[in-house]
Amino acid sequence: MVAHRSWHAFAGRLADILDACPACARARGRSLMNPLPADRPIPVHALKTSYRLPCLLRLSAIVMLATWAGNLLIRLLGVATLAPAAWTHTNAHEWLSWLWYGLRYDALLVSWGMLAWLLPLAIWRARGAAKPMAHTAFAAGVIAWFIVANGLALAEHCHLRDFGAPFGPSLFGALDGFGARSEDAAFAMHGATHLPCAGLAAVCAVCLGAAQAWCTLRFALVSAREATWQDAVVQGLVISTLLVVGWGRPAARLMEEEGISVAREATLDDLLVNTPVRLILALKAYRATRVDGDGDSPEQAAADALRSRGFADAAALVKALKNDGELASDQGEPPGDDATAVLLRAPWHRTPVNDLLAAHPPHVVFGLMQGWGGYGLSLDADAFPIAGAMRRHLDAGWWYRHAVASRPDTFSTLEHLLLNSGNPGSLRPDIAASTTFIGAAARPFRRRGYRTVFVYGGARTWRDVGRIARRQGFDGVVTQAEIVARYAQADARGYGVYDGYLWRYVHDMLEDADAKGQPLFVFVLTAGNRWPYNVPDDAATGPFDLTKGWRASPVDDAERETRQRGVRAYRYAMDALGDFIDRLKYSPMSSRTILAATGDHRAPQWRDGENASLSPFEQYHVPIYLRVPAAYVPAGRPRLDDFVGHRDIFPTLYHLALSDTPYVGFGEPLFGEVPSGRRYAVAQQRYLFSTAGAQDLRSGVTYAHAGAGDAERLAQQVADANASLALTNWFGEMQRRVRQTPNPAPASTPAQTPGVAQDVTPDVTRAAAPVQ
Known about the structure:
CATH class of the largest domain: Alpha Beta
Mean pLDDT: 83
Helix content: 40-55%
Low-confidence stretches: 6-49, 740-772
Largest sheet: 7 strands, mixed
Structural class: alpha/beta
CATH superfamily of the largest domain: Alkaline Phosphatase, subunit A
CATH architecture of the largest domain: 3-Layer(aba) Sandwich
Distance between the termini: 99 Å
Shape: globular
Number of helices: 30
CATH topology of the largest domain: Alkaline Phosphatase, subunit A
Number of strands: 16
């Protein structure tokens, strides 16, 4: 009996702290937050007092339902006003996915709000049941929760309507030093014109929040009684559930930078995440991508880029470029500010006149394959067939075995290739969504009448890449939602699409464009060869001999299974690309389609300490593969024995496909004669590799001694590389000197960037030294 009384008292105290739930023991009828020992009679005066106290279980459920209902109304308002066409061309599966993930994001928000805001208020009210102050604070807290959530959601709705994008990292960038920039006054005036709309939105937020709060207070408050041990168990389960929902594995998937994409209509994805969660995601992205100097003007950032490479000013860089032969000798020594004009012309080149290309432009497909590292491909053998279907194509095309990646990760590599910008951070939504980079890869193709399409195997919400691509010269953007809508089995369990279906989609696009006689440029970014290494059930299963790829097979079963999955994913990516080439080879457009493919960085399968002894080249090596139809093969010999890099790919494609077209480029074509001083590759914007040796441009450490190379030629290449990288970084900053209006420009009329060479600038582009 004594033990029973002690346990009952302990359970009552625990439930008292956690705000006991009356739903579990309604029949007992005892006081909730005034627990008494089990053998103590209840005083008569206690029965006359009936406090209304919050039940934690009911409170969580009602707040969840009310929050979801309010956000759903606002989401539907957004669909009706911003994307009315979505009602007709969005299928049932997409709508169900949209509702499901919206509910999950709202559950995530409610779990945070309950734990950090409403639960402390509920406990305070329960502890001070007889205090009017506790009643008022709890009611005010509930009302504030709904009004703030609704107000933020309606504010984002207005932002999406006016600026064409939901809240993002640019919001926090704008708040830093607001008022210090000249354009801030114009932005404030623009916002002032929307005050009536903002006032109406505030009234709607208050009215909707009041209705939600009334429902919550009406159904979550119950009569007081004594807590029991069953109440403590229920409340422990409620709080545990909130913790799992808010910080557990389901929440991690929702908070990944890849984001969630559920429908072909981009506006549905924009409306999917509730505003408080989006603000947290935007703040994380802002902190992750913020670098020193973000608040500087483009001119100041460009000057800093020059100094970081050892050049005092623009005139010093012009002098270095002239000495290296990268500037026309007749341009002379630029006096004063004229150095800026010379540097603005320096990256511009022009492809030669070619009657065949003018009359019969080929289709061009460029594939940036995630995790296609060259070290894994170098291990291919009969005992370790990791090259898969690509083995029969590598030697049949142009396979550059001495290529290196420009950057260390997928996003920065995409930034380098998509924008032709050397400085990191150019592809951030707050910059790329408001700036049209004239060096963007698709613009020369678009200028010559190509239809340009960006295809990504993941979600368009990843770094807002879908909206950015449209700004940077692409007529169309295809992402995970479009591919899954055509091939339902393409979904890689929520982590993008399988590469095989992505390449199948690209092949269908080529067939459609070829039938219309429309030249097509496709920029492809795969998303399959990454964690958790999902592959279709019919992919090559292995098992693979892990000792061929690692010094020893791991003893741990879990690690061995992880490596098997990784090798299988690499092999599947090779099979998917090889099968695409097979289909292309036997299709009518085979003779008029150019294909280029490369990897974004080192294969993630070999990123571990066991292979830390890899040479610098093996660490940064990626393959570059080119397939060029016979009619378009250039006269120059392919530079298959040279060290090359990502910077050389698009100058090559421009020369192979475009006649008499200006372009921005910092590399050399992968065929023909190139001066010995420029026959090198730079990895990670730092490590130089060439047949003359290798050197760390930052520290000056040489990896190949003079006896194994050519010290004099290596020194010449190092000087040229420093000047070229300085120009790349400087020009990348100067491209954003003048930003466009926040509204994205229509795809058919891309906005221009004043201050630097534009799409059609004959005087500027022809003044640059042409590449022969």
